Amino acid sequence: FTPKTLAGRRVLVTAGPTFEAIDPVRGITNLSSGKMGFAIARAAREAGADVTLVAGPVHVPTPRGVQRVNVQSAQEMLAAVQRNVQAASVFIATAAVADWRPASQSSQKIKKDGSGQTPSLEFVENPDILATVAKSSHALQGDLFCVGFAAESHDLLAHATAKRVRKGVPLLVGNIGPATFGQDDNALLLVDAQGHRELPRASKRVLAQQLMGEIAARLPPLGS
Ligand code: C5P
Question: GO terms for CC (predicted)?
Answer without folding.
Answer: phosphopantothenoylcysteine decarboxylase complex
